[in-house]
Amino acid sequence: MIVWLNGAFGAGKSTAARQLLDLLPGSTLYDPALLGHGLRYMLPARRLEEVEDYQELPSWRRLVVDAAVALLTEVPGPLVAPMTLLRQEYRDEIFGGLAARRVPVRHVVLHAEETILRERITRRGRRVGDPADGAATRDRCLARLGPYADALTWLGRDAHVIDTTRLTPRETAERIAEAVRSGAATCDIVQTPEPTSETLASGVLLFDEDDRVLLVDPTYKPGWEFPGGIVEPGEPPARAGLREVAEELGIRLRRVPRLLVLDWEPPKPPGFGGLRLLYDGGRLPREQIRDLLLPGPELRGWRFVTEDEAAGMLPPVRWNRLRWALRARKAGRPVNLEAGVPVG
Which residues contact 34 (CB under 8 A, 6 or more apart)? Predict the structure, then answer.
């Protein structure tokens, strides 16, 4: 298990984490920031100049998962990770990766009033030996209070929130320990095992009466996606698409959908690639749209969007696949792609 202590700088994550080690038997402090510091030494300067924060590095997010799993082979756990994580897509990638490796997540946000946070950050900046470094630390932490306030909307839904404004570090740790023991801090995420070889996946495009396409927002990976998933061994791909739509959205399509796109995705470490199929599930009537279901651990939202809107929501690979699928739908014939490029 990993107990992720989230929150703004100055909320008391590090001090509470150290106190928590006494309250959770077998627990070990796990600081993902150390991985970021290590990457600063190992990556070329030109790569580091492309990002403002090491959390933007895909290598950091992957290392957070891999290092946690490796640590849990050495210690009984839980791991206690005091780490600010404000971008929801990074939360999805990291927590989804942990769930895929069978590591349960307990997500706790330590919150404090802004005036208290500013006070604590200023005091911390004064304690840094070099005045210039202290001022830089203070300014950097203060600058992140805005993004923290913006993130509170989704953090409040995703995590167990503890107000530390009037709590000592020990009292904060005691409340965290109680939330972990009672299950109040449990972060439900669907477990999707990481592939060990090429995979076959089927997605189904569903449309409203204005021909906008349905996208869903998974909790276990970053970015928007099409309804669908991995084809199980021995399962017909089109039937897999039907099954996934029923499981994810509660919609039972009456007919087998028509193939729009077959795309071979090349392996790109650490991914294995494979075949990606997109089918035309047709238009959904208003009453069916009204009854759409979302299983909490798997999807957090859905939206019908135009082609232009989808361009700003989907990762480039999925967007390219959708673009060709929409053209195949208009032309009335499927398109064969290799790495997103038509062939044949």
Answer: none
Read off the pLDDT of each residue in 214-232 and give the average, rounded to a whole number: 92
CATH 3.40.50.300 residue spans of the chain: 2-182
pTM for the whole thing?
A: 0.85
Which is higher by pLDDT, 296 or 262? Answer: 262
pLDDT in tens, 34-56: 999 999 999 999 999 999 999 99
Residues in the chain: 344
User: May I ask the CATH class of domain 2-182?
Assistant: alpha beta
Handedness of CA 231, 233, 239, 242 (dihedral sign): negative
Closest Cα to residue 100, out of 189, 173, 14? 189
Out of 3.40.50.300, 3.90.79.10, 1.10.287.3610, 3.40.50.720, the CATH code matching 199-342 is 3.90.79.10
List Cβ neighbours of 51 (8 Å cut-off, separation of 6 or more): 57
